[in-house]
Amino acid sequence: AQSVTQLGSHVSVSEGALVLLRCNYSSSVPPYLFWYVQYPNQGLQLLLKYTTGATLVKGINGFEAEFKKSETSFHLTKPSAHMSDAAEYFCAVRSRNSGYSTLTFGKGTMLLVSP
Amino acid sequence: EPEVTQTPSHQVTQMGQEVILRCVPISNHLYFYWYRQILGQKVEFLVSFYNNEISEKSEIFDDQFSVERPDGSNFTLKIRSTKLEDSAMYFCASSEGGANYGYTFGSGTRLTVV
Fold first, then answer.
1. Nearest to A48, CA basis, from A112, A106, A92
2. pLDDT tens digits for A96-110?
């Protein structure tokens, strides 16, 4: 069975500072990896995904994530935080073994951005 | 940009009542899902639906739950006899295809059972 661990339920940064949200997965075969963002009272929006190829993937709003197989990690970063980045971020995995496998989510990390 | 639409956005119901949560997935998507998020907890998988039948369900999706795609556009989740612990945000999602695709989620229905 696969699982996702997000370190830190809350991360606080100042505007302009580096954002680093951590995600580690557990799976017998490296899965497909996703980051979703949830703004208050809204649904889940796909930020970026890793399926194959280049291990550094770029997403929307200046976010990027790097797949590191040796570390079973897929950490999300952004060089400079903006107030509008304040939201909850979810890492998710999906098995490569099934054509319609389900997404398994981490518990989420709330990103707080202060002026 | 195509959207997944969910109605209603909020629903309050009395314990023991039946509720139907409605979703309109993206028109060319083939896979449909329901997830739920209890306040303060992780997003949990309920059920997936493909080719007019359930393809996978979690242990949460017991006999009180059912899903239907009654026509070519709607995808519904029915809870027959709601319990207090069913209070949650329910998300519908759809996907074009295989495992390398992300899902497109709707904005959710907040269900409150009183």
1. A92
2. 776 556 888 999 999
